[in-house]
Amino acid sequence: MIKAPVNKIIPSSVVDGPGNRTAIFFQSCNFNCRYCHNPETINMCINCGACVETCPVGALSFKDGKVVWDDKKCCRCDTCIKTCQNNASPKIKYMSAEEIWEQIEGNIPFIRGITVSGGECTLQADVVRELFAIAKKHGLTALLDSNGSYDFKNHPELLEVSDGVMLDVKADNEERHQWLTGHSIDIVLENLEYLASIDKLEEIRTVCIPGSLENEKTITIVGDILKPYLEKKDIRYKLIKYRHFGVRQQYRDFKEPTEEYMNELKALAQQKGFRNIVII
């Protein structure tokens, strides 16, 4: 039975896709975004034990050289996350698709579907595929919230059970993308066009940081790539305001954008052919 590290499951979310949804956040990401708002999901625990010493309620302990989390004792104060110097969390559970579904099934009367996120959800593609297959049998929609590093063109089996992808496009060029994420942009832009071409692009997401023309350039290149498809489908573009909350201290020198600036970006997106633009 294949299992994947799950950081948390949010039973009811209205920001992780259309309608009310259950959102599953997997642990581990192959990007290291400077503005990451959930840096504790980037890496796996290395069992250094620093969090065991600082936990105020004794919910963490060592067993066979590994940090063990007792969720019944845990008071959810996040002292362990604040202590960790490895961008990780000891509060994860290894779960199979069936075990995840057991926590979702009771939400069916109240949700439209499920969304998997992270970390990066496609790093757990086998478990996600099994989970989506179960969800589809029960009449739920299934969406991926991805950084775009997964080669969807060469792995169609995941898309076969997916209703679409909410794709992060973080920059417009290789140099900027490497600086922001530590990863190449090429596969992201390839996925952008490919997903649109097969009608699997649910939404584009761009975190907006003022102080340069990088946001404008990103919106422009996204619009240029998607121009043939925007005439046929109303693809949502979500412009996300950078905020300091949760961001690592060494990367908090970015400025938060004003409403005026975000509306200027929205106007640019409209010029590029987007009709469904959301600012959050």
Which keywords apply here?
280 residues; TIM Barrel; Alpha-Beta Plaits; nine-stranded mixed beta sheet
User: Care to count the β-strands?
Assistant: 11
State the low-pLDDT regions, or none.
none
CATH topology of the largest domain: TIM Barrel
Number of separate helices: 9
CATH homologous superfamily heading of the largest domain: Aldolase class I
- CATH domain class of the largest domain: Alpha Beta
Determine the mean pLDDT.
96
What is the H-and-E element order? EEHEEHEHEHEHEHHEHEHE
Strand content: 15-25%
Describe the structure.
The protein is an alpha/beta fold. It has 2 domains: 4-40 and 93-279, Aldolase class I (TIM Barrel, Alpha-Beta Barrel), CATH 3.20.20.70; 46-83, Alpha-Beta Plaits (2-Layer Sandwich), CATH 3.30.70. 31% of the residues lie in helices and 21% in strands. The protein has 9 helices and 11 strands. The protein has helices spanning 50-54, 79-83, 97-104, 125-137, 156-160, 174-181, 186-197, 214-230, 259-271, and strands at residues 4-13, 21-26, 60-63, 66-69, 93-95, 113-117, 141-146, 164-168, 201-208, 236-241, 277-279. The strands form 2 sheets. Strands 5-1-2-6-7-8-9-10-11 form a 9-stranded mixed β-sheet. Strands 3-4 form a two-stranded antiparallel ribbon. α8 links the parallel β9 and β10 (236-241). α3 crosses α4 and α7 runs parallel beside α8 (214-230). The N and C termini lie far apart (39 Å). The model has no long low-confidence stretch (mean pLDDT 96).
